[in-house]
Write a structure and sequence with these properties.
Radius of gyration: 30 Å
Oligomer: single chain
Strand content: 15-25%
Distance between the termini: 31 Å
Structural class: alpha+beta
Low-confidence stretches: 118-124, 362-373, 558-574, 740-744
Shape: globular
Number of strands: 20
Length: about 750
């Protein structure tokens, strides 16, 4: 939407937005808070006066809206409002952190410091990005408001992503799904998590997004009628039992429907439970558990539950504080319906996450033991991660892994309780007990049965660790453990072992070179790396130390020139590689496939998503392969663009591009005689289309066939799909990506 307000209208709109913020904040403001918020607003408005967003609107709308989200959607207080209003001034304006501290105090300055991106020179863009995330997490470990404000900031950026260039939409959306959506989930902000996911889908796969929302809208009236009929007997029974309650009906989010369609290979109409009913009851804290089960009893009096779909997070809350009772029941019309049962307090925590969690804890209802569990335990693990070795990228991956983990409870032989991340192994537990017990771990006796070190622990296990003085950690152990504590101790051991091997290898090399009266210099070390194709001289020394490099080959150091690899790249491809190695960004460049002016740059079409002409595409630069072309909706791009944004290059098809390309399609249908011949005949009749490979399978009367076809364009494959759908018995035909959706 085009922005065209006059200066006078802009000023009025800014004041309206500010007053709206104050109205929503009024219930939580104390004496003097309004004055501090006004001061922060004036400082931010003055600092950002000349700045505008990509949409054209004054920049000050952004911090006001972030503050509004903090109050209205997350439930934060005055300090967070002030920090949200000022969160960009240190990064984008001449105002310093010291000035902020003098005006608003140390707490606000500390939060803003955590939200301010790191400046300076980094070898790669992904290093800087990872360092920024680590900085936020470091500050979060002291004050969780840092990450809550960051989530509000990212939410507003995602809501206004339509004004950004296409490559920015893909990059920001991928990063959001990769790190911020799971973070919102871990902190219990389910509405924020859901909106992140839906907006990701909107900008990365707009066709599916529009299709799913259209389907949801089409059956809205039918859904409302169904929900009213479904809840009518439940409402009557609850009223008769004098419950105070509200009932809400909601559809699954577009993203969750899309995710299930992709992962299960089903159509929209085949998604298991498209909507859910939420029953929220008013209850005293001490009566919550029993009242939830009473409501469950009422629901199951009318509808038969699926015993495999009962989730009791009332007795054992999730690690992020989420409490609710979930069941899936069969309606009288034959549709499965998910029913969620929770109290008003549980609903508040579910909607507002960590902020609400602390609000109820501060009421003094929780015991000291409770305070060590759930979110607090996870925050302690985050603090432990911050003390582990490794670069920022390794930290971010470790942190992201921990976002998804729930807890289990296991016991020592003496009956002491240990809280471990879900999927923890015997080896994780050994390191939890003591570092040396971990180093010497051979296995364990669980409930008096012998198990190996990679055995995954279950809730309630009693674990007796077995050790041996001859045991020591190996690199393979890193594939066994899930906790950052175990990973740190194993890496420390292996790194010390590597340092000893490297020192041994260096001494061997020095002695060998003395035979030629040659001193080991930095330049000579670099030549050795080239000869043995290793990224660092340390790696060469380790190989020499372990005997994996024949020391006699060191003779080649004397005449190293013949070992330089011959580059077969063209002149322009060499230039591209040099620009990549220098860390240059490519976002403002464009690779046009089939354009003669770019014919010197190597590129290849990705085999995972098989882009074809007229697909929206993105290039990922590889030093060895040139540019790998992916479809913009390819699942692999999420992690790649999130971690390596500088390697993404804008790409498009030239109108001159005429090369045939490979497309992968998957066909589902009812099996019958000669159906495969019919499918092959349909494909063969298409101009310039032929089958490269084919995989067919049948199961209980249904077929699932995958074809890889040589086609000319997107329109070409769409015509083939349309014709295949007319074959008798065929139920569905789709373009198919050969990608494991692990990040979903």
């Amino acid at each position: 939407m085009e922005y065209n307000l006059s200066i006078k209208e802009e000023n009025k709109a800014i004041i309206r937005a500010y007053r709206k913020l104050l109205r929503h904040a009024k219930p939580i403001l104390k004496e003097g808070d309004t004055k501090v918020i006004k001061k922060a607003f004036n400082v931010a408005a003055d600092a950002h006066r000349e700045m505008r967003r990509k949409s054209g609107e004054p920049y000050i709308f952004h911090p006001i809206t972030v503050a509004q989200i903090c109050v209205e959607e997350i439930g934060l207080g005055t300090t967070s409002i002030v920090a949200a209003l000022l969160h960009d001034v240190v990064e984008d304006t001449p105002i310093t952190l010291n000035e902020i501290q003098k005006m608003f105090g140390r707490k606000v300055a500390r939060i803003i410091d955590g939200l301010t991106k790191i400046s300076g020179v980094f070898k790669n863009t992904e290093d800087k990005q990872a360092e920024n995330i680590r900085k936020i997490v470091m500050t979060m470990s002291d004050d969780v408001r840092v990450i809550l404000i960051k989530l509000a900031d990212r939410l507003h950026n995602m809501r206004t992503l339509g004004s950004m260039p296409r490559h920015k939409q893909l990059s920001i959306s991928s990063e959001t799904l990769y790190i911020y959506s799971p973070l919102a989930h871990r902190l219990g902000l389910y509405s924020v998590k859901t909106e992140f996911e839906d907006l990701y889908l909107k900008y990365t796969d707009p066709e599916y997004y529009e299709l799913i929302n259209k389907k949801i809208s089409e059956n809205q009236s039918e859904r409302i009628t169904f929900i009213r009929k479904f809840i009518r007997p439940i409402q009557k029974q609850l009223r008769d039992k004098f419950f105070e309650f509200t009932i809400k009906g909601r559809s699954k989010s577009a993203y969750s429907i899309w995710k299930k369609m992709k992962s299960k290979n089903v159509s929209f109409d085949e998604v298991y439970d498209l909507f859910a009913i939420r029953i929220i009851i008013k209850s005293l804290r001490d009566d919550e558990k029993s009242m939830c089960w009473q409501v469950y009893s009422v629901v199951t009096d009318f509808y038969k539950p699926n015993p495999n779909r009962l989730r009791d997070w009332v007795t054992t809350p999730k690690a992020n504080g989420y409490e609710s009772l979930h069941t899936t029941v069969m309606s009288r019309s034959g549709k499965w319906v998910e029913v969620q049962i929770r109290t008003e307090r549980m609903d508040d925590v579910a909607e507002r996450g960590y902020a609400a969690h602390w609000k109820y804890k501060n009421n003094g209802k929780d015991s000291p033991k409770d305070r060590k569990e759930g979110l607090d335990m996870w925050m302690n693990r985050v603090r432990n991660m911050l003390h582990t070795e490794g670069n920022a990228k390794e930290f971010v991956e470790e942190f992201r892994t921990n976002l998804f983990q729930d807890e289990i409870f296991v016991f020592t032989p003496q009956g002491d309780l240990n809280v471990m991340p879900q999927s923890s192994t015997v080896l994780d537990f050994a390191y939890e007990v003591h570092t040396q017990i971990g180093h010497k771990c051979l296995g364990a006796k669980i409930n008096h049965k012998h198990v190996p070190i990679n055995h995954i622990l279950s809730n309630g296990d009693q674990v007796d660790v077995l050790t041996s003085p001859n045991q020591k950690p190996s690199k393979e152990w890193l594939n066994v453990i899930v906790t950052s504590k175990a990973r740190k101790h194993i890496r420390d051991f292996l790194n010390e072992e590597k340092r000893e091997l490297a020192q041994k290898g260096k001494e061997i090399l020095q002695k060998k070179l003395l035979q030629y009266n040659i001193q080991l210099t930095k330049n000579l070390e670099n030549r050795v790396c080239n000869i043995f194709d290793e990224p660092s001289v340390k790696a060469v020394y380790e190989r020499i130390g372990t005997g994996k490099i024949d020391i006699e080959k060191i003779n080649s150091v004397v005449d190293v020139r013949k070992f330089f690899p011959k580059h077969i790249l063209t002149k322009k491809a060499k230039a591209l590689k040099i620009r990549l190695q220098s860390g240059e960004k490519f976002n403002n460049s464009e690779l046009i496939l089939g354009d003669e002016s770019y014919s010197g740059i190597q590129y290849e079409l990705s085999t995972c998503c098989m882009p074809i002409k007229d697909d929206e595409i993105v290039g990922i630069i590889s030093p060895n392969k040139g540019v790998i072309i992916h479809r913009a909706s390819c699942a692999k791009l999420v992690e790649t663009i999130s971690n390596f944004p500088h390697k993404a290059i804008k790409s498009s098809w030239s109108r001159h591009f005429s090369d045939a390309s490979m497309a992968r399609i998957k066909i589902w249908g009812k099996d019958r005689a000669y159906i495969l011949i019919d499918l092959i005949n349909i494909i063969s009749k298409q101009n310039n289309a032929y089958i490269q490979t084919m995989k067919a399978s049948t199961n209980q009367g249904y077929l699932e066939d995958t074809f890889e076809l040589r086609v000319q364009s997107k329109q070409h494959v769409e015509t083939i799909i349309k014709n295949l759908l007319e074959v008798k018995g065929i139920l569905r035909v789709d373009r198919y990506d050969n990608v494991e959706l692990e990040y979903l």
